[in-house]
Amino acid sequence: MSSPSSGRTLLIFGGDSGSQVIGETGISAPKSALSNKIIDIPYNEVTNILDQKVQKQVFLAIHGKASKVTIAQSALASKEQFQEMRSNLIERVEQR
What is the CATH number of the domain that holds 43? Predict the structure, then answer.
C-alpha cells in the first residue's frame, strides 16, 4: 500500500510538533503531540473523527481501522489553521 501522502499533496499543516499532511488519499501525522512516529491513515479507512476538549486544550482524534492519530490544536500555528485542517480532513473523508 502506498503512503496516503504519496502522489499529489493537497495541504501541509505544521507547527512545533511536526507536520500533518492532508494528501490525495489520506492523512499522515505524528501519532500524538509527543510522538515522532508518523501514522498514515487512508481516508477510506477512517472510522471516526472526534473533537475532544481536555481542560482548555482542543484535540482532533482520527480513528482508522488499525490506528489512531490525535492532533492538538496547539500543534498547529493557529486556531484558524487547526479549523482549516479539520474542515479539509472531514471533507475528504466524506468524499471517499
Answer: 2.30.29.30
Phi-psi region of 55 (alpha: psi -120 to 50; beta: other; left: phi over 0): left
Question: Per the structure block, which three cell numbers stand in for 20?
Answer: 500533518
41 vs 30, more confident: 41
The predicted model scores a pTM of 0.80
Q: Cα separation of 60 and 38, whole Å?
A: 16
Residues of the domain holding 34: 9-95
Would you say residue 3 lies in a domain?
no
Closest CA to 90 of 58, 56, 61, 68: 61
- Tally of residues, the chain: 96
Domain count, the chain: 1
